[in-house]
Amino acid sequence: MKKLVTSKGNIFVDWLGRHTLLHGINMVCKEKDRNYIGDYHDKDFETLRNGGFNVIRLGIFWDAVEPEPGKYDEHYLSKIDELIAMAAAHDIHVFLDMHQDLFGSQFSDGAPDWATLTDGYEHVQTDLWSESYLLSRAVQTAFDNFWNNKPACDGVGIQDHYIHMWKHIALRYKDNITVIGYDVMNEPFMGSGASEVLQALLSGLAEAMPNNLALNPNDSLALWSDSSKKEELIGLLTDKTLYTNLIQGAQGSSQQFEKTSLRTFYNRIARTIREVDQETMIFLETNYFSNAGMTSAITAIVDKNGLQDPNQAYAPHGYDILVDTDLYEQSCNARVEVIFEAHKQVQNKLNLPLLVGEWGCYPNASEKQLEQAAHLVQIFEKDLASDTYYDFSHLYHNPISKVIVRPYPMKAAGRILEYSYTHQNNRFHCKIQEEKSSTDTVIFVPNLESIKDVTLVPYGQGYTLEQIDGSHSGYVFLPALGYPEIRQIDFSLIQ
User: Fold this and answer.
1) Domains and CATH numbers, the chain
2) Average pLDDT over residues 327-335
3) Deepest in the core among 226, 320, 405, 491, taking most CB within 10 A?
């Protein structure tokens, strides 16, 4: 069954072939005592539609889907069905994110206990949760055993279980036109090989210190682990060249993991999904370290004959190294530029659509955070990237909405060449290469009543406005010219 959105070369297209930008939000409930089902209601999806969000990255969890080896929880999946149906009722697409943090529910969320094989190592819980990836031998060993497909208690490899689970999910959603993608693993982590990356980072950090602060790698780790000293170190990492050299100088081992274990895994899981579902996009994430700017070495998935799968997308994440800390006032645009320049480079190599699956995470956005968020949005506009902001819980009573709710071209009767929304003067600009088409270009606007000074070249049949019921927001429709032509629209919004 034809999905509402698929991939075509390096862009997303809708079922009419229009270049489509996906702009959305993460809805990921990590609470085991709720069986990982968020307290989401129809009103929430209405809020999303009114804010111009047309896609949700919806978290699902191995622990909930397969609580016992080979036994799938249909009640849990029926609850996921209900959320998908609410999204569909508001014309919002969904892609499913098999989420994990620190591998499994023993340590955070993700895999069930029966699939978390630690070989007896104890977990190290760090003050900043994500640093357990680097310091917990139990977490690293659980990942090692996953990549090595170590047998579970029933004698079946745990990676085999994971892949069979995804086949079960694909069978369920292959004919659901709202479910446009499968994000098969959140932030895959390399396991014990991360120790080499950490050592390279610490050595690079020690070398980057000023002469009067000469350190060895062990000193660097001690300082980084001390919250009061970490602030000083981060202050030294505001130089873009220095940060680039530090991060990318340590990427050898992470790239090797992506060229071997991760590549094999992606191809295995994709071929299994394609046995039952050829229409739903498969989203490829980079390994954990690329979130901070290491250039990914992932490759596009291919079938057993070596032919590239035609329906896949590149879905990396990107966060400033201050994420989840109390140091957000030291946010640095130079660091996030390194991350997304690397992601754009990889997208160009892969020639796949780019969707930034996670970014932001500003639960109570300060002015400094709003400045960084606006800078990131400008990068996404320049790169014509789709995105899903993390996380839905930030949407209410948070000034971040001022940045992420903005005008943008949802669908274009041809190909979007460039667009931007400048907050300083509230000016929107968009240029499209129209094809011979009978469909409309659709531009979302947060407040239709605020539009002024519209210019449209060539004018053609002009434009029409359509308000979303019960909202100030709506759409600008540009009827297609019917012949190939570069089309440009500009307008301002009265604030």
Assistant:
1) 5-193+250-405 (3.20.20.80), 407-495 (2.60.40.1180)
2) 88
3) 320
